[in-house]
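Appendix C reproduces, verbatim, an entry submitted by the partner laboratory led by Prof. M.T., so that reviewers can inspect both the input and the predicted structure.
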Amino acid sequence: MTHFLTIDRVSKTFYSPDDGHATQVIDNVSLDIEEGEIVVFLGPSGCGKTTLMRIVGGLETQSSGEVILEGEAVTGPNRQKGMVFQSYSSFPWLTVLDNIRFGLKYRDDVGAKEKTKIARHYLDLVGLTDFADFYTSRISGGMKQRVAIARTLAAAPDILLMDEPFGALDAQTREFLQFQLLEINREERKTTIFVTHDVEEAVLLASRIIVFSARPAKIIEEIPVAEVIPEAERTIETKESEAFFKLRNRILNLTREEARRTEEILYGHEA
């Protein structure tokens, strides 16, 4: 069976440029992801989940194993893979609409008029129509992150890679964007890898959660969230449901031991 994305026995070791000391951050990870899924990488800070996502994006090279996206080996970054980071990436000398239109700069499959139409579609999708002519220096952090998401989607990537994109936002804005991402996925069915260490965020967003160990990252469990909480039914009330609480508490119990091990790795003593 051919999967949309296959991560096959991937390991990664970094070597210190000073003394050559080896630090393994990913240990023989294998995973299949299907088209349209939101797969959340969950684990303690520093466990290697972001490095694995960067390998999928072609921004890092694995030490062993391979990543296959739509039948082709990933060997570097390209327009096929769209990335959204925690930091707000926008061009302050461009308006909101022009920032989004910038995402279409390297698309040669559509003309200028169609690019503007596409940019306005994603402007509407992230709820920024009234701010089209504002410069990004005049909008909030949450709006800037919506601009980054819209610009990335406008480039028509096959897979969306999101590295704690809501981590720097206040709680209310973060919740708003979480539900907006769910709505975008319902409309676009964009395959997404979402990295977080926030358990509630993971349960709310995920089709599946991949729980990683402390460094070096190994998969300790795959949790099929959509089988318990269907994606089409998720609303603000979902976070108050018994199913949500049970799943959250189960995952918290899984991750507590890995968080303790991370403290030992980083600081040399028990938390």
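The chain is about 35% helix and 25% strand. Additional entries are available on request from the coordinating office.
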